[in-house]
Design goal:
This protein is mainly β. Helix content is 0%, strand content 49%. The strands form two sheets. Strands 2, 4, 5, 6, 9, 10 and 11 form a seven-stranded mixed sheet that branches. Strands 1-3-8-7 form a four-stranded antiparallel sheet, with no helix packed on it. β7 and β8 form a beta hairpin.
Length: 127
């Protein structure tokens, strides 16, 4: 059974930073791309950042480029989302997800390409 557990969310002032962590188990983590999605109230869930299984390809939504970075640690089965210069519009529940395809080339931005999700962690950025 695949499990993804996020941590690191919280309340931060605009301009501040947070690092989200996702611990994965139950699948050969190092062979699957990972994604961080977010969903704000009244909005659809969107891919914020993704990293390929090898770590050689990354994806960032335009709204977070230059502020967020994504990384993975295969030895620890962890994926991280470093969020800097946070804005109130970054407020959302953040989810990590694992790609359903073994060693897919690149990163996909559609939810349907991910088959397991964490429970989510709330990030609130105050102005």
């Amino acid at each position: 059974q695949v499990q993804l557990v996020e941590s690191g969310g919280g309340l931060v002032q605009a301009g501040g930073s947070l690092r989200l962590s996702c611990a994965a188990s139950g699948r050969t983590f190092s062979s699957y791309a990972m994604g961080w999605f977010r969903q704000a109230p009244g909005k659809e869930r969107e891919l914020v950042a993704g990293i390929s299984w090898s770590g050689g390809n990354t994806y960032f939504a335009d709204s977070v480029k230059g502020r967020f970075t994504i990384s993975r640690d295969g030895a620890k089965n962890m994926v991280y989302l470093q969020m800097n210069r946070l804005k109130p519009e970054d407020t959302a529940v953040y989810y990590c997800a694992i790609d359903r395809t073994f060693r897919r080339v690149g990163v996909r931005d559609r939810e349907e390409e991910y088959d397991y999700w964490g429970q989510g962690t709330q990030v609130t950025v105050s102005s």
